[in-house]
Amino acid sequence: SSRPRVFSGIQPTADSFHFGNYLGALQHWIRLQDDHDAFYCVVDMHAITVDYDPAALRERTYRSVAQLLALGLDPQRASVFVQSHVPEHAELAWVLNCITGLGEAQRMTQFKDKAARGGLNQASVGLLTYPMLMASDILLYQTQGVPVGEDQRQHLELTRDLAQRFNGRFGETFTVPEPIIIADTAKIVDLQDPTIKMSKSASSPKGIVDVLDDPKSAAKKIRSAVTDSEAEVRFDREEKPGVSNLLTIYSALTGRKVDEIAGQYAGQGYGAFKVDLSEIVADFVGPLRAATMELLDDRAELDRILGEGAARAREVSQATLDAAYDRVGF
Ligand code: ADP
Ligand code: NA
């Protein structure tokens, strides 16, 4: 294929993706599948680096895949698969571990943050080697572009360093991937506390809209979102983070420009704006939830789709791993 290769992964760590995941990542995956050769992976191996429940992980992996398909990923156009189904990910990660400095890995801010939370003695070695598994995910596919948010920028930098280091030491093997930086404007904030980002770990139930929320409760969360006392629909991320967040969601779900939407509600306060958006959100999550549940009712079909995705992934990943193994002397 002459289309540029892109790779991205998402962890199956919740029962539902939320609007931050969708607007900050998944909608871009879907956009890119049209004119890119896309490999999209549910990274279950990354999800076991912290405490977890095996039965919940298995269910969340299926739910993640079903949501991706319901949101619009087309397994005919994009290769959609589960990380643990493609053993090359773990195999190349070992090689990359062996060319990464211990200090280099310990300097990753995400490791420092997560390890700091539970204390270093509680952290798994998997948490430390997570970025090398992520590098393996990306490099196995000779990836040219990786859609990433700000939070993964440092890990992608490490991936580029490792690709260059390996190529320099053992001979040209890996494509050095470029970030496809997703604009910070796609950052969705908490509906009840617009000073923090919407996140499964930090948000309260009322502050987070899940793509699998039932339409009524999603609409209610939008109507009761925290805004400000100015009562003017206007985009200003600094001064009006709550309203700007709602405008971002409105714009993303309708394809209309933020300024145009703000213009429509000029001089009207927040009432009509919130009611209209609550209906737009309800109309978005309703069919999504139904489509996801329908997909989840047919596990055999999901297994078939994932089997095809893994087979397509292995065609590429085996060739890359063979070359890498040969270069390192295996
Ligand atoms: P969470 O922060 O809820 O734990 P993850 O860290 O699993 O979510 O993020 C998965 C993807 O969704 C990443 O690409 C991340 O950049 C994106 N993402 C997560 N939260 C937001 C948000 N509030 N706004 C925009 N993108 C987000
Ligand atoms: Na996060």
From TrEMBL:
Domain of life: Bacteria
GO terms for MF: ATP binding; tryptophan-tRNA ligase activity
Enzyme nomenclature, EC number: 6.1.1.2
Places the protein is found: Cytoplasm
Motif 'KMSKS' region per UniProt: ranges: 197-201
Binding locations of ATP: Q11, P12, T13, G20, N21, G149, E150, D151, I188, K197, M198, S199, K200, S201
NCBIfam families: trpS (TIGR00233)
Family: Belongs to the class-I aminoacyl-tRNA synthetase family.
Protein name per the record: Tryptophan--tRNA ligase
Lineage: Bacteria, Bacillati, Actinomycetota, Actinomycetes, Propionibacteriales
Gene: trpS
